[in-house]
UniProtKB/TrEMBL annotation:
UniProt keyword DNA damage, yes or no: no
Transmembrane spans: 26-45, 65-82, 117-135, 147-165, 171-193, 205-223, 235-254
Entry keywords, A to Z: Fatty acid biosynthesis, Fatty acid metabolism, Lipid biosynthesis, Lipid metabolism, Membrane, Transferase, Transmembrane, Transmembrane helix
An example Gene Ontology molecular-function term: fatty acid elongase activity
GO cellular component terms listed in the entry, alphabetical order: endoplasmic reticulum membrane
Catalyzed reactions: a very-long-chain acyl-CoA + malonyl-CoA + H(+) = a very-long-chain 3-oxoacyl-CoA + CO2 + CoA
Gene symbol of the encoding locus: HaOG216969
Listed name of the protein: Elongation of very long chain fatty acids protein
GO BP field: fatty acid elongation, monounsaturated fatty acid; fatty acid elongation, polyunsaturated fatty acid; fatty acid elongation, saturated fatty acid; sphingolipid biosynthetic process; very long-chain fatty acid biosynthetic process
UniProt cross-references to InterPro entries, sorted A to Z: ELO_fam
Family to which this protein belongs: Belongs to the ELO family.
Length: 309
């Protein structure tokens, strides 16, 4: 126990010594342990506690809640995209090839630092994607990819806000918030009901956009391995490898959902009726998206044969 306490004390000393003094006193920034605890609690809630709570309860009807939630996420993502751009990337102050961290308290610099913290905070609001699945008893949608994506991101972003708020790594946030504007717009439309189905033909392209996002992040981060830039090499690998991991996870989903040949089952009787069995989850079609990823296909058809067969 003494060794553990000493290890925690040494880690806290390191955080205080090398962390950015501008963000150190901000909410949840002084230590990584509160964020880690929240992330672990999220995993326990959606994988264990939530399913137990809902085991003998009927699914909650959350249509209006989902519409409102996804609308607010669109607004929040749009604001973050604007702030990250207006604080650097849209102004000519930021260089796409190499952008060191500005440690000053210049108003424009502090605007970016604040945007970084709010981007970190947004990763907690995305937990509600999964919580709504659980409350609606859509346990099959709480996939490994979904939980990894949501559970890892707050902790990953925390290190950036703690040590390098601003600079090269904020390109990640710029692309990610742009994708989230489109993604949560999709969820909001889908949450409105089956009459919106005809407007949701572009789900496949949203998955493609997610993968393009990660390729862009990889290229932007790893270029610093080949040029001289005053930006921490550790964060180049940190950001780049996250992009690599999520790219292949999403690519695997894409291959399973869209690249597999469709096989029709042969039936000895003529088909008479085809029913599209589509249900909804967090504003997206069943087996549709959750933060850009899914567990299956857009819809599945059930064939109804004549009576007596």
């Amino acid at each position: 126990m003494a060794l553990i306490l000493q290890y925690i004390s040494d880690m806290q000393y390191y955080m205080d010594k090398f962390g950015d003094p501008r963000t150190n006193p901000w909410f949840l920034m002084s230590s990584p342990f509160p964020t880690l605890l929240i992330c672990l609690s999220y995993v326990y809630l959606v994988k264990v506690l939530g399913p137990r709570f809902m085991e003998n309860r009927k699914p909650y009807e959350l249509k209006n809640v989902l519409i409102l939630y996804n609308f607010l996420q669109v607004i929040f993502s749009a604001w973050l995209f604007y702030e990250i751009g207006a604080a650097g990337w849209f102004t000519g102050r930021y260089n796409f090839q190499c952008q060191p961290v500005d440690h000053s308290k210049h108003p424009q610099t502090m605007r970016m630092v604040h945007a970084c913290w709010w981007y970190y905070f947004s990763k907690f609001t995305e937990f509600f994607d999964t919580i709504f699945f659980v409350l609606r008893k859509k346990f099959d949608h709480v996939s490994t990819l979904h939980v990894i994506h949501h559970g890892v991101m707050p902790m990953s972003v925390w290190f950036g806000v703690k040590f390098t708020p601003g600079g090269h790594s904020t390109f990640f946030g710029l692309l990610n918030t742009f994708v989230h504007i489109i993604m949560y717009s999709y969820y909001m439309l889908a949450a409105m009901g089956p009459h919106m189905r005809k407007y949701l033909w572009w789900k496949k392209y949203l998955t493609t956009l997610q993968m393009v996002q990660f390729v862009g992040i990889m290229v932007h981060a790893f270029q610093l391995l080949f040029i001289d830039c005053d930006y921490p090499r550790a964060f180049v690998w940190w950001i780049g490898m996250h992009a690599v991991m999520f790219f292949f996870l999403f690519k695997d989903f894409y291959n399973q959902s869209y690249s597999k040949p469709k096989v029709r089952a042969r039936s000895p009787q003529p088909e008479t009726t085809e029913i599209k069995d589509i249900t909804y989850k967090n504003g997206s079609l069943k087996n549709g998206f959750s933060n850009g990823h899914t567990n299956g296909t857009f819809a599945r058809a059930r064939t109804v044969l004549p009576a007596g067969n």
